[in-house]
Amino acid sequence: MTPQDTASLLVRLGRFLRDNPIFPLIILLLALIATLEFMRPGIVNERWIGNTIKFAIPLAMLAACQTLTMLTGGIDLSAWGRRSPPSSWPPRCRSWGRRWRSASGLCRPS
Known about the structure:
Structural class: mainly alpha
Shape: flat
Oligomer: single chain
Strand order of the largest sheet: 1-2
Number of strands: 2
Number of helices: 3
Helix content: 55-70%
Order of helices and strands: HHHEE
Low-confidence stretches: none
Mean pLDDT: 78
Largest sheet: 2 strands, antiparallel
Radius of gyration: 26 Å
Strand content: 5-15%
């Protein structure tokens, strides 16, 4: 193999892993399980796998619900990234003919 073929193979592998992120995660999971088995031989058995799945299912359901909430509700957790905050920060209250006060960022009639 020439160096160009090796570079091309690495680029294709990188694209494949970027397009299919589940494969690196599965490899990482298997590596962690192998490390656990190496550190405590005999711990990985049918009972351990059953307990792991039993505890992982509610956590996965909760994560899926939170993800759907963020996607459908328009919740953005980016905290403005590297940009400066918008000009409307901190929030200001408008009066609309009445007197409003702001307590801890909330606008309500006084």
